[in-house]
Amino acid sequence: MAYPWQIRTFTESEKELRRSALEFYGLLGLFSTLVVATTLVCWFGHVYRYNFVGGSSSASSSPKTVYGRWARFLYLSQWSLNRPLVRSWRWAGSRKSWTFGVFWLAFLAFMTLSATGDDYFHLTKRLAHTAASFLPVHYLLSARSLLQYTAILSYQTHETLNKLHRWLGRTIYALAAVHGGLYINYFIRRSLYEHFFYQDALFGMTGLGIMTAIVITSLPHYRRNHHRFFLNTHQLLSILILPVAWFHIHYIRRYILLSGTIYVLDLVGRSFLTEELKVKVTQFSSTALDLRGTAGWLLSSPDRANVNKIPAGSHFYLYVPTMPRSRGNPFTLASADEKDGEVKFLVRVREGFTRELKDAVDNTVSMTMEGPYGIAAAGVGFGYFDAFLFVTGGIGITMTLGVLRDLIIQIEEGIEAGSTELEKARIKFVWAVSSTEDAAWPVSELLKAGPTTCKPDVEIYVSSRDDDDDGDDMESKRTSVELDDLEEDTSRQSLLPTNTTDQATAAAIAAPSSPKSRSGGNGITAAAIEGLEYRYAGTDVMPTIRTARADLARITEEFMEGMAGKRVAVFVCGPEGMGADVRRTLERHCREALVWVWDERFGM
């Protein structure tokens, strides 16, 4: 019937043996993914981190301990595996994807085919048991609060593990689909049509239909272009599938119960990370909003200094009860002041929630903020590095600027305390932005750092004219959640606030401008550049402003010159192509220098 598998009749003892085999492989799948894989992820994270926080004093010297050699091997392997499988075929994916894919296929083959012989039904049931055993870790990979709480152990968060969540989801669906297909084939070939109306078959087909809907709505087209529909459908169906699977067959209920427990624990964890906040909505430009409010829980007392400090670069999920479409939107925290409890978000106006926020300009809005999320809380400390490179695009500066400001403050505090740990660190900050109007926003944030002897090398690349604002129509064509795609010539909107006037900035109007800052390109006037320079003159950080697109390969290459034996931290926040360009250049220097990369983006 189904060569090489056959329909066979077995005695009760033989059936019991097959049932025991199903239980064994199901528990093996659960243990392998939930315990072994989790332990390996945590161990790899600690070993990789050891390259920067431990080991030899020089990044280029050979480690002297076994643990150090393992750390070095893992570090170099990570860089090698992240390279494309074929350099000229980047669409083919990375070496890591193919290596993991081959290993995963071999593991699935073992889990589903081992000791099945030619037993058709045993193979069919093994597929379902294997799929069910993967459900708990699949739900864990979507539990953003649980992953955030454990980030200090794994150095991974919901954002970094989201690809694995999608990968595992497709695996579970494929196994369940083949399981259902084999049973349907059996019913049809044996003319057992009445079996389609049995309880287990009805719940099985219903569950398969739910999983099909989840997979279809999770395709990139729906995630990017219909994100609200994708999110609501995904959340609803991921809950609905659990009771359906529960009533389908009782042998897999242990996995369903564990998955449901993880889901509930995640909801409880998220409730502890959620705080209420009243914010004043202010419009700074046609496409940018400033949300500013006071969070009482953020205030720190002298005996609890820095207890509630939010790590720079963290993001929150904002929800306004009167705006149902606001749920599920992550926004990077632009700044937070522990002294007065003020938090500030910079929000780009798009469709949906942000459009509703725009209608609430100059009003106070009650909202909840869930977070902080992100790898910042478990990142490697500044003190372990000798140089820092920041590369950011568009509104991605909300992340990198906060990190830069914290770095400057830490350097100044260290100097005051007599520490020279970061005093000689080299710092370069590169920002690619669409207009001079946008480029003025960091002024007020840099002023918050206070007077500083730290002088980072700041370059701002302005690529478009201020008068090319296409307004709301062009904004609706953006595809990223929070970042500008700098590779598209149509990205010419005003994204950042410009009507903030600081006394220090106003007092610096007569400050001389730097001739080298004007390159005169893309129709940007010298007056616009001069006005931008006047704004920055009030800060202790005077940028070099260029009217051209940033050559990231050249910038990264120049920065890495003379970095042999150094530890280098690279922060990237922009479209996916930006991080890829920077990494390609860093690949040539990862052996002589230790390079740690934080690539932040809110992709779909």
Automatic annotation (TrEMBL):
Enzyme class: oxidoreductase
Protein name from the UniProt record: ferric-chelate reductase (NADPH)
Membrane topology category: Multi-pass membrane protein
GO cellular component terms, A-Z: plasma membrane
Keywords tagged on the record: Cell membrane, Electron transport, Glycoprotein, Ion transport, Membrane, Oxidoreductase, Transmembrane, Transmembrane helix, Transport
Residues making up the signal peptide according to the UniProt record: none
Domain FAD-binding FR-type, chain residue ranges per copy: 244-379
Reactions catalysed according to its record: 2 a Fe(II)-siderophore + NADP(+) + H(+) = 2 a Fe(III)-siderophore + NADPH
Location in or out of the cell: Cell membrane
Segments traversing the membrane: 24-46, 98-117, 137-155, 167-184, 196-217, 229-249
PROSITE patterns: FAD_FR
Cited PANTHER family: FERRIC REDUCTASE TRANSMEMBRANE COMPONENT 3-RELATED, FERRIC/CUPRIC REDUCTASE TRANSMEMBRANE COMPONENT
E.C. no: 1.16.1.9
Similarity remark: Belongs to the ferric reductase (FRE) family.
The keyword Protein biosynthesis is annotated on this UniProt entry: no
Single GO term (MF): ferric-chelate reductase (NADPH) activity
Region (Disordered) residue spans: 462-501
Gene Ontology biological process terms from the UniProt entry: copper ion import; intracellular iron ion homeostasis; iron ion transport
